[in-house]
Design brief:
Layout lengths: L2 H27 L14 H37 L14 H6 L7 H6 L2
Helix pairs in contact: 1-2
């Protein structure tokens, strides 16, 4: 397999994976977060537990929204022909990183400096 074919295949796999992740995230974001019900006497512990679960669900939703934005950005980069190039240094993002984190915009070295 020549380099161009390998790159084309890798891009097709990345696009399919990103679209799959996007569908999953949209489904996750479509789920309702249940509001706390009316509190009755003696239900403070249950209410506190419910509020904790609600806060956890809101945090997970926020994380899913950030990931959806990253996936959409990666798909736009695919369409523009700038995927899988590191946005920081311009080096190729290794296939292993693309497979693990298909929405990655940086190579491993630049990604580790961002944290």
């Amino acid at each position: 397999m020549d380099g161009v074919t390998a790159d084309t295949d890798r891009i097709a796999v990345a696009r399919a994976r990103l679209q799959e992740v996007r569908v999953d995230l949209l489904a996750e974001l479509g789920e309702e977060i249940e509001a706390p019900g009316q509190m009755t006497y003696g239900s403070q512990a249950a209410a506190a537990s419910h509020v904790f679960a609600q806060q956890r669900d809101l945090a997970l939703r926020e994380q899913a929204e950030r990931r959806l934005h990253a996936v959409d950005h990666a798909l736009a980069r695919l369409a523009a022909g700038t995927y899988p190039i590191c946005e920081t240094c311009g080096a190729a993002i290794p296939p292993e990183r693309q497979e693990l984190v298909p929405w990655a915009t940086t190579c491993v070295a630049c990604g580790s400096h961002a944290h």
